[in-house]
Design a protein that fits this description.
By secondary structure, this protein is α+β, with helices and mostly antiparallel strands. The protein is built from eight helices and 19 strands.
C-alpha cells in the first residue's frame, strides 16, 4: 500500500483532547535513554481490569481457539462482571506456544471472543498448559513498533488485525543474537532472551519508579522519541509500568547496545507530540469494545482504542510516518514481506 492510499482524515477530537492534556514529569536518564512519566486528564469510565488482575479471577481464561489451535488467534472467555483490557504487545505464556497481543482490546464483561495474536516461540507447538498465563513481559519496543506498522497495513488491505508473523520471528531471532541467549533457548522464545538479561533489566527498572497519578510513559533515545503509551486509568497503568520500562530497557540495553549516538534532547517529547496532533487517521472495527484508530504523522505512527469519548489506550511510535520526512536519525520502516 502506498502512502497516498492512507485516508487523509484529521484525528478524532477525543484523541486531540488527550494529546492536549498530556503533561510530563522529570525524566530518568541512562546513557542517552530518557524515560518521562506522563500525566493526563483521567477518565474513570469505562472501568476495566488489566490482564494480570483478570487472570486471578474465576470466570476469566485464555485458551487456544480449538484443541488443534491456530497460531494467529486465541479464545478469551470473560464471564466476570468487569471489562478486561488486553494490552498491545502483552505476552501470554503457555498452551501450545507463547503469543503477544497484536492490538489493545477491551473485552466486555460476560463475553467471549477470539483475539489476534503473534507467536513469540517459534520452536514449540505442543501443550505446556491448557490455559494461558501472563509471562510478565511486554514485547520490546522495536518489535511493538514494527508489528504496529504491519497491523495498520493489514487493516487497510484486509480489514484484519494480522501481523507479519515471519517478521516477528526475524525480530525475535535478532533479539536472541543481541542478548546472547540463542544457545540457551530451545524453542526460540522471546521470554528466554529476557530471562538471560533479567539482572540488567532489574537494575534498570529499579531506577524508574511509578509516580502517583502517572498514566503513561514516553521514551527518548538521543534526540528521537521511541514511543509513548498512555492509559485512561492511572491504576491500570501502574499494573503495566514495570513491563513498559522493561520493554524500552530491553530494546536499549540489548538491541541498541546501551549508548545513544546523540545527547538526550529534552525538547524531543514536545516536538513529537506537536507532530502527533497533526496526524492523519483511519478508523476500524475492533474485536472488543470501541473503535480502533490508526494514526500516521511526520515522525511516527500508532494506534488509539476509543470507547465513546474516552481514549482507553494511546500508543505512538517514532518512525514510519507519512513519508513526508522521517526524523534525521530514523531510517524508514521496512515494508511488509511479500
Amino acid at each position: 500500500m502506498s502512502d497516498s492510499q492512507f485516508p487523509a482524515t484529521s484525528i478524532h477530537p477525543a484523541i486531540n483532547a488527550l494529546l492536549a492534556s498530556l503533561r510530563t514529569g522529570d525524566p530518568k536518564i541512562h546513557n542517552g535513554l530518557g524515560l518521562w512519566p506522563v500525566f493526563a486528564d483521567c477518565r474513570p469510565e469505562p472501568a476495566y481490569l488489566t490482564l494480570v488482575e483478570a487472570l486471578q479471577l474465576d470466570g476469566f481464561k485464555i485458551t487456544e481457539v480449538s484443541e488443534g489451535g491456530s497460531v494467529p488467534s486465541l479464545r478469551v472467555v470473560n464471564e466476570t462482571p468487569q471489562h478486561v483490557l488486553l494490552f498491545d504487545g502483552e505476552e501470554l505464556k503457555g498452551a501450545k506456544q507463547n503469543r503477544i497481543l497484536n492490538t489493545t482490546i477491551l473485552i466486555a464483561a460476560g463475553t467471549s471472543l477470539d483475539v489476534p495474536v503473534s507467536c513469540t516461540e517459534q520452536g514449540r507447538w505442543s501443550y505446556a498448559s491448557a490455559e494461558f498465563g501472563s509471562s510478565g513481559s511486554v514485547a520490546y519496543a522495536e518489535l511493538r513498533k514494527r508489528k504496529s506498522a504491519d497491523v495498520a497495513m493489514s487493516l487497510q488491505i484486509n480489514a484484519s488485525h494480522a501481523s507479519n508473523q515471519g517478521a516477528v520471528w526475524e525480530e525475535i531471532e535478532s533479539l536472541h543474537v543481541a542478548a546472547k541467549s540463542g544457545g540457551s533457548s530451545q524453542t526460540r522464545a522471546m521470554k528466554d532472551a529476557y530471562n538471560e538479561r533479567q539482572k540488567e533489566l532489574d537494575d534498570f527498572t529499579r531506577e524508574v519508579p511509578c509516580h502517583d497519578g502517572q498514566c503513561g510513559l514516553l521514551a527518548v533515545i538521543g534526540d528521537r522519541v521511541e514511543g509513548i503509551d498512555v492509559l485512561s486509568r492511572p491504576e491500570a497503568y501502574a499494573k503495566l509500568h514495570r513491563r513498559l520500562v522493561e520493554s524500552h530497557a530491553m530494546d536499549f540495553l540489548i538491541r541498541k547496545e546501551g549508548v545513544a549516538r546523540k545527547p538526550l534532547d529534552p525538547e524531543a517529547p514536545a516536538r513529537f507530540l506537536a507532530a502527533a496532533a497533526k496526524a492523519e487517521e483511519s478508523m476500524h472495527a475492533t474485536p472488543g469494545l470501541g473503535s480502533d484508530h490508526r494514526l500516521r504523522f511526520r515522525w511516527g505512527h500508532g494506534a488509539a482504542l476509543r470507547v465513546d469519548d474516552t481514549i482507553v489506550h494511546l500508543a505512538l511510535f517514532g518512525g514510519g510516518g507519512l513519508g513526508k520526512g522521517h526524523h534525521p536519525s530514523e531510517a524508514p520502516l521496512r515494508r511488509r514481506h511479500r
